[in-house]
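Posting this for the archive.
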Amino acid sequence: MIKLGFQSCRYNNLFIEQEMDMALKSRIDFFDVFFDGFNSRDIENPGNVKLMEDITIHLPLDFTSLASEDKEAYFDYINRRKPKCVTVSFDNLSYEELEMICTNIKGPVVAVTNTIGDKHRIYGCTFYEFLLQAKMILERKMLKVNVTLDTGVAKLNGQNPVEYAKNLIKDGFTILSVHLHDNDGSTDYHWPAGSVANGIDFENFVRVLEEQGREVWGVIDHWNNNYNALEYLRSI
């Protein structure tokens, strides 16, 4: 079953309190907290922001470059808040850093996500190649790496998200979370799911996810016409 939620965004001219209010009125299943322009200390104090019970978290894009004490603050918040998924971007993430993140976060909730360009800045490998190597390394330490598959990024990288998801599952990966937005393969537009001619086949994409037989946390990764995307995805 796919759960549907909105994501915090620094570019929509809304405070996170306003985003949360809109999310609750839309009766979404969860809320994705993308730490972009703010940090865990900004929302963890009592009375600051009242989040939904079910949340997922996207770590800052520059997480790997943060000071150790700042990383510890995130780990502490995550382990107290117990999100359903914690996403980290793959393109500047070392295997050692990923192991450290998985070790410090309780439960198998860490998921690595694909990025535009599909090339790792350190290793020069693709996202899929990174995942295969990470899986082998982490399994030796009894740790697990999950996947957050960004549909729009996959499309922009010249991949078919439906086939990509099938291959991930076939190779033993759990797709724990997905970022749901559409484009025509030319630019990262973040258009609503189902709104683009020659866009992503979301109906079959959702069917592939459901074959896992588990909850998948589907983040509607935009605020322009996000209600349209929500209604469309609910209808699938």
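Residues 68-81 form the longest helix (14 residues). The radius of gyration is 17 Å.
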